[in-house]
Amino acid sequence: MIKKESYIGKSVKRKDGPEKVTGSAKYVGDLKFGSMLYAKILRSKYAHAKIIRIDTSKAEKLPGVKAVVTGKDFPQRMGLYLLDRTPYAVDKVRYYGEPVAGVAAVSEEIAQKAIELIEVEYEELPAVLDPREGMKEGAPLIHPDLKNYEHVPAIYPKPDTNISNHFKIRKGNVEEGFAKSDYIFEGEYYVPQIQHTPIETHTAIVMCDSTGKFTIWSSNQSPNAVRKILSHSLKIPMTKIRVLGPYCGGGFGAKAGVNIEAPLIPLALKLRNKPIKYVTTREEEFRDTFVRQGMYAKIKTGVTKEGRIVAQELEMVWDAGAYNEYGVNITRAAGYSSAGVYDIPYMKTDSYCVYTNKPNGGPLRGFGMSEMHWAIEQHMDMIAHKLGMDPIEFRLKNIQRDGSTNATGQVLKDVGIEKCILRAKELIGWEEIKGEPKPELSSGKVRAKGLACMIKAPAMPNNAASSAIVKFNDDGTVALLITAQEIGQGAFTALAQICAEELGVPEDWIKVSQPDTDYTAYEWQTVASRITYSAGNAVIRAARDAKRQLLEMGAKHFGVPLEELDVYDGYVYVVADPARKIAVKDIALGLTLPDGSGWGGPVIGKGVFIPEGVVSFDKETGQSPKGVSHWTYGVQAVDIEVDVDTGKIDVKKVVAVYDIGKVINPDLAKAQTEGGIIQGLSTALFEEMKFDEKGKLLNPSFVDYKIATAAELPEMIIDFIETPLEDGPYGARGFGEHVMVPTAPAIANALYNALGIRINTLPLTAEKVRKAIKEKYGI
Amino acid sequence: MQKVDYFRPETIEEALELLAAGREEYKILAGGTDLVLHLRERKVSPKALVDITHISALKGIREEEGKIIIKAATTFTEVASSTIVLEKIPALADACKVVGSPQIRNQGTIGGNIVNASPAADSVPALVLFDGVARLTSKRGTREILLTELLQGVGKTAIEPDELLEEVILTPYPGSVSGFYKLGRRNALAIARISGAVELVFAGSKIAKARVALGSVAPNPFRATELEQFLNGREFNEETKEELIALAKNLVADKLGSRASAPYKREAIAGVMREILNRIEQRRGR
């Protein structure tokens, strides 16, 4: 017998590592073509205004300028879930920064000069900057035509309002639940809009050739979605659009769906055979790509005196910005996840996506979960303290277990949150907390621990599909053709491991393709922490299909039944007699029979995957027996030190424990978690987009918008629980975004445990902490 | 970015010739971590840049009769890792270690930090602390001026267009212990919101001599003479520390008046002072 070594659970080195560390990896910014032109975009200086007049004549006359476009050149609306967005403003602008006109010129400098020569006359309209005001009757309408916009069936815009989606949960009668409760606790929480800050700003090159075929190179997470959306709005077949995805220098959700490709389309239509390149400036990256939505949450919770949660009423009002084509689904995801990790019999949730005259809300690592858990996890801690219970003890009384139902009435199984909590408790060295904290203030520093939980499902359409093609080269090496994007998360490595495992060839024989929609196999999008899960399943099936073909040829070659053969280390061999073997390379393109004739043909395996049995939520109640493919749970516990005088929070240690079903690559899972902790810590302490009273973003730079640096790194202890997922590859669950979700509420909870102060708004700046200390202690 | 001429003299004399010829239209490039940004933002538009970082006579740190002399084009990294600085004036090492990021510390210079005259200049409180004197040279001759007199407000100095800051001369008290701390919005790559530096000479349990300097609470870093007078002759104990902190709070409140940052800074100064005194306490034992 051959002793097989598995690639699953091994820290295989990153497939993209050597290219990236040697500088060989090509990003869109590295690409140059002959006769290339450069684009610049004129952007609105008003948050909400009618466009009275645009005069582009001076810009058009500037030598070197090849094309100038405005909204009228391409007024079709586009979007992923709700078609509410045009590449350039048509008739009115809806946020400070919206594209008003675009220029393509022979150099960036000339394009910039041309932009400055375009005259625009505006008539200012009253702006909506607070979604709570925006959803009131009589508020200025940002999209008066909302009722006519196309959208997917799963979202519910309210005509003649600024509400682009209203997702509801009605689980039992919540009033009945409150009547059964001994105590009612209410709280309000807020998160501001924040930015993804990828190192690579959005970059794209778009060309329309003389036959009308578009080729698009883009730093994007969604090549197939870009093709679909553009095909729909251009009304041309998908054979006329090819989207390529070179390496992507960080996505975090910002590069999902269609982004800066759109404003290049009207320019490309005017200029055949000219590749037009557009690199967003850092200022544009901050303001004019997706941002994370702001959110106001109001929670009311009914609890028994034993500490059991009976009822929860939650209202989430999302500050979703000027265009909600993607954000509507974030609102939906938070709605159906609104029980968090808890088993709550009676629930009422209203999640409102509200247009505001601010930058466009969109996906950001966590997809609504960070925002929602900021509220829920602080609220749970607050209740525990009020009841005089330890926050962990309170959670253990209320968490979901096998057989519990969540917000949507789904009966849950294989729930691993309890194990995560107990492991985190042990790793952080939790000491029981009961009653109000009594800090020793005189030393100037106070230390404490805190904890928060999280839950997340891949937020995607029920039928979001993946596919993979496995084909062999003459020498037995393998091309894995997929359209998943490597955005730094390690997708190529995990998928190569899975492919090698199933095929029985060495992992370094696998070359994973970069997306090219003309040739690589369909992938819905690289979002929702779904690639290892969904594409992973497709790769398993494709590899098994290819392996079956290898075995068929082996069976013919050895004259034994297929079932008696296996493939390992690049050989097809007879299991009972491993010395009888033939190299994969000798049969990968077909078998040569002893008489010299050929048989079979090149091995090509295909595999597809759609999560099965995902049923739409009921419109009125949000109930579904299984509304999402699966859930992933996790916990973070933190140990912080607070400077009493300066209010500065120093995060000393973070423990993270996630139940990810099966760890495919331990090093990558750990690295992903470390990155998430830093990003979560950064949002907890620093990040906030600040606007003036007119809706102008005040801090679109790394000087004024601070993110955590290496100097903020805490000690990080990371562990995984493996409760297998029924339809996950080797049991693996979706994992990636989850790692930044509980960091901020865990820090806020630790702050309370340190000083008895609760700050309900992100970020936890030194000023806010200092002010709260002064208010509480008078020092 | 605008087009400018670039000169790279290798001697002080060459540099002075250029400055004399260029008058106010030439600007000295001494690392460029601020100047290059100002050029890009068109805040300044000189005809030419005179890069002094290749003049070997403008680099280095030496000790001479109890004085420590730092040449203007010495980088923050060089200052922070200098044995002389670490042993004799650790407050300056503290300050230079927290300038920007490693890249900025490798590029930016002490001279540039002084001449830029920012209220939040990281190294300047520590330079002012040790009675820093600037040595200015031009074709017309050489003069020495106290840093506290050289700095004349935000972005303003008493340096003439043809003058070159050659070196800064520090006079620490013999046998002193010093420390510096900066509070920024984060631990690296952040502008100082408040910074402070303290130098103490101990006589047994008492403070024999004291110097205190503060940054980011006035147009330029300055010597807090009230705090120095308070410290002179006191026991170095908790009571003194708390009283010093209370005085520092008052001083910061006075300096900032009704500025928006005042309510926070006049309290946060306590944490800054505490951290500096902790550092001194730790160093004193060594």
TrEMBL record, chain A:
SUPFAM superfamilies, alphabetized: CO dehydrogenase molybdoprotein N-domain-like, Molybdenum cofactor-binding domain
Sorted UniProt keywords: Molybdenum, Oxidoreductase
Superkingdom, taxonomy of origin: Bacteria
One example GO MF annotation: iron ion binding
Domain Aldehyde oxidase/xanthine dehydrogenase a/b hammerhead, chain residue ranges per copy: 22-126
Protein name as catalogued: Aldehyde oxidase/xanthine dehydrogenase a/b hammerhead domain-containing protein
Natural source organism: Carboxydothermus islandicus
Automatic annotation (TrEMBL), chain B:
InterPro entries: CO_DH_flav_C, CO_DH_flav_C_dom_sf, Diverse_Substr_Oxidored, FAD-bd_PCMH, FAD-bd_PCMH-like_sf, FAD-bd_PCMH_sub1, FAD-bd_PCMH_sub2, Mopterin_DH_FAD-bd
Domain FAD-binding PCMH-type positions: 1-175
PROSITE patterns linked to this entry: FAD_PCMH
Matches recorded under Gene3D superfamilies: 3.30.465.10, CO dehydrogenase flavoprotein, C-terminal domain, Uridine Diphospho-n-acetylenolpyruvylglucosamine Reductase, domain 2
Pfam assignment, any one: FAD_binding_5
Keyword terms: FAD, Flavoprotein, Oxidoreductase
GO MF, one annotated term: oxidoreductase activity
Name the record gives this protein: FAD-binding PCMH-type domain-containing protein
Source organism: Carboxydothermus islandicus
Organism taxonomic ancestry: Bacteria, Bacillati, Bacillota, Clostridia, Thermoanaerobacterales
